[in-house]
Write a structure and sequence with these properties.
six-stranded mixed beta sheet; about 400 residues; elongated; alpha/beta
Length: about 400
């Protein structure tokens, strides 16, 4: 076992398998100040009217509008000032005909007010206010509940909490919010050649790239990465490490997915459960593996990424990121017009035959320049501005052909 791919599958079939994997969503309450980028797990209804009182939308003078109907530049109306109300003050005097009250933007209006004259159209003289423009009934008045009424739906479930949404929730005095728990995803890097960045680099060894790369991608998908030590290409070591993660929602591995003699992940999955995908008709990323684990806690899934950094990130981006975002209840990849650019290919390019080919590209002006390096070349990630998808039935792309460039990170 482990010496060959089970069955090279079409990418769309693999996506369908992943999409059909069930998710288990749990909720928790968090302080509003800690809720940024979390996802609301239940509808939020307004607990008060917004605004909670009738107020002025302008600096000026609260009046009985009928008192000002004949006001003009040549014949101003004179009203007696009886009170000054700032934002946060409470009016003490009722407004009656012939009188006015000075009000600041956002201040509550005294009883009897039917309009507010902007300060720009007034003049003050020894307690008398000259009104040079008539006020319509209701002018510059914001009614109680005119924005949101108590009991009205304020934010629907599955809304991602952004700074503006925190402002909305703050407006109703919300202290805590019910959100989905962040899924926990175990990250396991495998390989006899992999060492931690703190270790001394010796001949034949390389630093672990995928742990940090994939962990960062997991965070960007709204999940919590759970780190572990690097595991060698050993059946017992890898099996024991996978068995440690009883309480995570998903396991992600990198390396150990190919059909070579040193790659044991398929054997471990056969022993702990079953392999449902082993091999995808894409380049890079062919040795992708998906397994279903059986234990006392029920079913758990493992996604195995190729060991090469470019292949690992591409497979994560195309196949696994949408599932992690679904687990975290946040919006999946949109590929909106703002994210995808249509550019001209800078040179003739011959893709891999019989496989959907993902090609990293560098963007210069209106041109997409293919990066001609293998999936083990980390420098290609430094150069890349995005990637193009070439269908498996395309034998050659000519220079100047239009291609769609997708962002390498769109989650």
């Amino acid at each position: 076992m482990g010496q060959e791919f089970l069955n090279i599958m079409d990418p769309e079939d693999v996506k369908k398998i992943i999409d059909d994997i069930p998710t288990n969503k749990r909720v928790e309450k968090v302080l509003l100040g800690d809720s940024l980028n979390r996802v609301i797990a239940e509808d939020v209804h307004a607990t008060i009217n917004l605004p909670p009182f009738r107020r002025t939308s302008m600096d000026g003078y609260a009046v009985i509008a009928e008192d000002t109907f004949n006001a003009s530049e040549d014949y101003p109306v004179s009203l007696k000032l009886i009170e000054v109300i700032g934002a946060g003050d409470v009016p003490e005097k009722k407004l009656t005909s012939g009188f006015c009250t000075e009000v600041s933007t956002g201040a509550p209006l005294p009883s009897g007010t039917t309009g507010v004259v902007m300060v720009e159209f007034t003049e003050s003289h020894n307690g008398e206010i000259l009104i040079y423009e008539s006020a319509a009934i209701g002018q510059n008045i914001t009614k109680e509940g005119s924005d949101v009424k108590e009991g009205e739906l304020l934010l629907p479930r599955d809304t991602r909490i952004t700074p503006d949404k925190i402002g909305v929730l703050s407006a109703i005095g919300m202290k805590t919010v019910t959100v989905y728990q962040k899924p926990r995803v175990a990250i396991i890097s495998t390989g006899n050649e992999i060492i931690n960045p703190n270790d001394k680099l010796t001949y034949g060894k390389i630093y672990d790239i995928n742990s940090m790369t994939i962990s960062s991608a997991v965070k960007a998908c709204g999940c919590i990465p759970v780190h572990t030590d690097i595991v060698e290409d050993d059946f017992s070591a890898l099996k024991n490490k996978i068995n440690e993660f009883k309480d995570v929602d998903l396991i992600l591995t990198s390396g150990g997915t190919s059909a070579g003699t040193g790659d044991v992940l398929r054997e471990v999955l056969d022993d702990l459960g079953e392999v449902i995908v082993h091999g995808v008709a894409v380049k890079p990323g062919k040795p992708t593996i998906i397994g279903r684990l059986k234990n006392d806690e029920g079913l758990k899934y493992l996604f195995g990424l190729p060991g090469n950094p470019v292949a690992a990130l591409m497979v994560f981006r195309v196949f696994f990121a949408p599932f992690l975002m679904k687990m975290a209840s946040i919006s999946t990849l949109t590929h909106s017009d703002d994210n995808v650019q249509t550019l001209k290919l800078s040179r003739r390019y011959r893709p891999a035959r019989g496989r959907l080919h993902y090609v990293l590209v560098k963007i210069e002006g209106k041109n997409a320049i293919p990066i001609l390096k293998d999936s083990g070349a980390i420098s290609s990630l430094a150069e890349a501005d995005g990637f193009i998808q070439i269908p498996k039935n395309i034998e050659i792309l000519e220079k100047g052909e239009s291609v769609q460039v997708f962002p390498l990170v769109d989650f």
